[in-house]
Amino acid sequence: MSRTRILDTSDEAVADIQDGATVLVGGFGLAGMPFDLLEALVRQGASDLTIVSNNAGNGEVGLAALLKARRVRKVICSFPRQSDSYVFDALYRAGQIELEVVPQGNLAERIRAAGAGIGAFYCPTGVGTPLAEGKETRTIEGRHYVLEHPISGDYSLISAHRADEMGNLVYRKTARNFGPIMASAATTTIVQVSDVVATGGIDPETVVTPSIYVDRIVRVEARHHIVGGAR
Amino acid sequence: MTSPTVEHLDRGPLHMDELARLIARDIPTGSFVNLGIGQPTKIADHLTQEQGVVLHTENGMLGMGRKAEGDDIDPDLTNAGKVPVTETPGCSYFHHGDSFAMMRGGHLDVCVLGAFQVSATGDLANWHTGQPDDIPAVGGAMDLAIGAKDVYVMMTLFAKDGSAKLVDRCTMPLTGLACVSRVYTDVAVFDLGPDGVVVRQTFGITLDGLRDRLRSTGGHTVVLART
Q: Per the CB < 8 Å rule, is A78 touching B73?
């Protein structure tokens, strides 16, 4: 029997997330956002959360719903400000949420590093900018670098297209985005998918996230929202 | 071989669509290119099939096609501005770690970004106005600025308040140091390099007129003719 558990409901999947947890949330805008898991987390009630995600919510669905319910203490993201990020914007302007802005590639690589057992890495992105202030720097073969540390989570909530009963995942188009790296970087990875097939039902050559990274799966109806735009 | 600075005096400044077309024509055949959010996105409309340019979008795709309309809209397929787009034959998908590794690793040929300010030495400021009420948001700008082999800027040469955006030193928060190699504006196109700031062409203004206008608007004034 597979170690990956396939659960009946999103509520069961997120039941043990505690106050103060760090949660990595997949998605780029709304593509790949785990809407059902986030809505279950709102119902579950955990608060004082630190959320790591590319954006800080769109409209009032998914991540924005969690923010609106005042469950989030801090957001670590690359691009909070969007045309429809009014929930985050209001909380930020009122001083009711902390924000740490991280360049998008550094966000991705720091998450990847956490999953890959890297202690820290020297990165050229952001050298000489306000986002590198106070960070250790080093010059290697004439090029300047900033030391960046991994970002890990207690939980990852991600969305994939299909899983098999082992927990192997495939994604759909650009909804893949942060899913594979976040799956590797949390103590517990919870995945919502729109389809679960029997073990062996996914061609091993096409598996994107191997089952070792996946702890819980819940099947939900696929649903889609279009965001208003980046600015 | 370079050609001397060309002064286009039979016309006014370029419209943004004309500027997009000019940049599209300058992108080398077969390049892998990332177009930043905002005005640079328009460059895609002017690339020809014969150019064989492959567009990268940092949310995980090479071979991005045109904006999706009607039944082609798929919420799982968007560009970096979250606008629904389409596939082209030979496209590929990858996760965010890989997407920025190919950028940071120097595999992209050209990236075109908008800018608030560019310095004469190629410093770029394009992510944060620095105003206290502005919510900081960087996205992939810093990664793009240092990643592509050539970073072009597409912008108006003068801000809405009239001040020059090509300056001796950026006063707004920096995105990257010494990263911009060419600046395309409505009034002139500049190469930034070891020789300093060299004007490739002007639109609706002479080279001397350009220098006067930069001088009177706080801009970088030592702009050289190309010979």
A: no
